[in-house]
Amino acid sequence: MALPRRALLAAGLLAAVLPLLLLCPAEAGVVGVNYGRVANNLPNPPAVVQLLKQQGITQVKLYDAEPTVLRALANTGIKVVVALPNEQLAAAASRASFALLWVRRNVAAYYPATQIQGIAVGNEVFATAKNATAQLVPAMANVHAALARLGLDNAIKVSSPVALTALATSYPSSAGVFREDLAQPVMKPMLDFLAQTGSYLMVNAYPFFAYSGNAGDISLDYALFRPNAGVLDSGNGLKYYSLLDAQLDAVFAAVNRLGNYNGVRVVVSETGWPSKGDAGETGASAANAAAYNGNLARRVLSGNAGTPLRPNADMDVYLFALFNENQKPGPTSERNYGVFYPNQQKVYDVEFVLGRGSPAAGAGGSQGNGGLGWQENGGPSSSGSTSGNPPSGVKVTTGEAWCVANAIVGEQRLLAALNYACGEGGADCKAIQPGAACYEPNTMVAHASYAFNDYYQRKGRTIGTCDFAGAAYVVNQPPKMGKCDLPSTV
Which residue is catalytic, options 27, 66, 270, 440? Predict the structure, then answer.
């Protein structure tokens, strides 16, 4: 079988190495979920815990330390992050005795039966409780001291979710810098604390907001982890293929300006995409939410969560949110970030365990495609529903699946994988030969995507056939490579 000219350049060693790499999956992160409860129609905590277990969700982040929830999570093996609310920061910062009492009542009383692994001290304090900004790091220090006094500081880490509004500049990524009022007074002491205690920086990042406000300038494919031409950052010479990567690298750049904190991991404590929005909320839809959350989850679970600036970082991600929450204020999108409706039906499918689709997928479900079908509201009664349950006329669409190149791994690894797919792998690569229908665009990403997808489809889309040592991933909306459509069957 003839190979594209560029593939012939590396046919030797790289092609031989790839089959070995296929047997050695990368270290992977975990996809958890934020369990918010700003609603009056949610299932009780024991039912929620059953749902978490059914879906294979092993990490959950709370916005408080509600006793009924913590008791329900006992003896489940699910790891939990609890939160000390913003309104208690002042007391925790000024009185070590308050912090100790809070930890005794809300953490030690449930641990280890409930596997609390972290405490989020406040939430987006700089954005939502600006008057408490100066109290944040002292409160974190007092909470950690309380854990140490109780012998829990090695098992339970202390952090605080930071919104991207903490950055004065976020574009391009290389120009990332914290606001002047936060950099030295708060962020540097926080990073010092995280480094000293072996904790991690929690970052809340929402590409949806950036895309929705700048849809004329930002590609939807770039926002949803779909194949795209990429964006070159002239400041650091790196090319970005996803908006979330660019946002996180802006944070990393800002952190680097404050010192050497390479040992401090980053956890994406919130990210998500709404399934519904107001007329002005461009991009809010169930299909886009399924694409964003599904593609992100698959990246994390397959060990490809690194960014161009930190390519080897393994990263845990908490999707926002478990349920649609009908009492959240603000635009329609705020009440439609849930993966589940309050009646526990899926708004769309997301896999929390690699290769595991919907456990209850039936004729209209999403079997064999990585669990990324989605439900789109339709029918005459889909608007104006306030029950929080799916409206009548819901259309369940079985998602198709394609395998595309993961540009972030670089051309060398893509070339090795392309060689393997077109050679030993048995993919039909005639269409990407010079002059053939899919030769243009003549880029490594486009040619590799075609070859990977042909291989994936020929193998029946079975688990592990779209990985290529991290050089590929599955998407569930048709990718476009110039004028070439990638087939969803062979």
Answer: 270
- 11-69, pLDDT tens digit by residue? 333 444 444 444 344 467 899 999 999 999 999 999 999 999 999 999 999 999 999 99
Rounded CA-CA distance 467/470 in Å is 5
Angle, CA of 22, 23 and 26, to the nearest 5°? 75
Length reported for the chain:
490
Cβ neighbors of 383 (< 8 A, separation 6 or more) are: 391
The H or E element spanning position 466 is none
Q: Among positive and negative, which fits the CA dihedral 330, 332, 335, 339?
A: negative
Annotated catalytic residue, options 27, 124, 325, 440:
124
- Tell me if residue 124 is catalytic: yes
- Residue-wise pLDDT for 378-404, tens only, equals 222 223 333 333 333 222 233 578 888
Which residue reads 């010079």 in tokens? Answer: 434
This prediction's pTM: 0.77
Structure-token match 């950055």, residue found: 167
Q: Is the peptide bond before 172 cis (omega within 30 degrees of 0)?
A: yes
DSSP H helical ranges for 150-270: 180-182, 188-197, 207-213, 220-223, 243-256
Report yes or no: 381 and 393 within 8 Å, Cβ to Cβ: yes
β partners of residue 268: 203, 317
